[in-house]
Design brief:
The chain is mainly beta. Helices cover 11% and strands 34% of the residues. Strands 4-3-2-1-5 form a 5-stranded antiparallel sheet, with no helix packed on it. Strand 1 and strand 2 form a beta hairpin. The longest helix has 7 residues. It is elongated.
Length: 109
């Protein structure tokens, strides 16, 4: 599967396979030929693993904080395992925050 120019930086994609299947993510960087020790075309994506849950007025402070937490993920993914959507995100500049060096360190993910 080739990229064909559809998957670009800022494109919203849906993860199709693996631990984050069904999750939405934003493409940060695209490598057509494969980089970082990978021999296939891939892209670095950043997304939300655990979304915030529904909150109601009579919940306590501790429960409210627990339900409002968001768990992000950053991952290098093969083009075959993502599905591009028609949406793009131009507001946030993820390229400065998410770098290949930052992906290797588990604490900075």
């Amino acid at each position: 599967f080739k990229n064909m120019g559809i998957i670009k930086s800022g494109k919203v994609v849906i993860m199709l396979a693996g631990r984050y299947a069904g999750r939405k993510a934003v493409v940060v960087k695209v490598s057509e030929d494969g980089a970082g020790g990978k021999r296939f075309g891939n892209c670095i994506v950043a997304g939300i693993d655990r979304y915030p849950r529904k909150v109601v007025k009579n919940m306590g402070k501790a429960k409210l904080e627990k339900r409002c937490k968001i768990k992000p993920f950053v991952k290098a993914v093969n083009f075959n395992h993502i599905m591009p959507t028609r949406y793009t995100v131009n507001d946030i500049e993820l390229r400065q925050i998410v770098t290949p060096a930052a992906i290797k360190k588990p604490d900075s993910k």
